[in-house]
Design a protein that fits this description.
The chain is 37% helix and 19% strand. By secondary structure, it is α/β, with parallel strands linked by helices.
Length: 289
Amino acid sequence: MAHGAATLLLIRRLPFALLALLALLQTGCGSLFFYPDQTVYITPDRLNLDYEDVYVETPDDETLHGWWLPAHGNAKGTVYFLHGNAQNISSHLLNVAWLPERHYNVFILDYRGYGQSTGEPDIPGALTDARAGMEWIAGNHDQSPVFLLGQSLGGGLGTVLAERWQTQDQAPPLQGVILDSTFSGFRAIAREKLDGFWLTWPFQIPLSWTIPGEYEGVELLPAIHPTPVMVIHSVRDPVIPYHHGRTLFEAAKEPKRFLKTDTAHAGTFVIPAYREAVLAFMAKHKKTD
């Protein structure tokens, strides 16, 4: 592209960048984490999966939509899946659609503002939603072991949930926490992303401080002990760099497992060997009465 054309393109885009910056300055950078939509991409029946529509009421009067996917045959456990920051459960379904055939129930939930769920998303609200989903599982528990699987944003939310669930001695206890393609902390990844754009670079510190400090997964993971932790991260993740996964793994206490992968961001479960590694982790750590 010629220098003049490149300059013209930058000038045309600059007002939009300035608007984005103004929005961040007014609302803080929590909005960086949420990109919901209401499009239906795929439904469980199109994958020949049995399912139930679930509606969960939150303490602040939002209604969340989720899907319950029952295991084929006798359930070995239940996986509570917290998805990433874009779209809704219908676009993330394929990440867990393989689990019922392997005898695991799945509960997948949309945060407020996503899919059919009411409200507008923000970090405190999404944390409320994640806990509401876990409480739904507790109220409908079939006594099978419960595992938390959080992917990308869902891993950040899941770490906070798991720490609170563990320290408050809630039931059913989590048998394992699996963090896939997850950042080491909300502040940490916000600062890193703001640092990468020239217009927001000067504001990376003050904007990141608009996120409460108690949400940093790297600081919360030790308190999940003795719940086993599995951290999964790709060496070529272009969205959340590999060092975030290593940082989380180093912070976690034993028992823990690190799975080094080689896929695009959140592409873990396309690869059968990575699926088997997660199944092996759950089989090793599940406890039954």
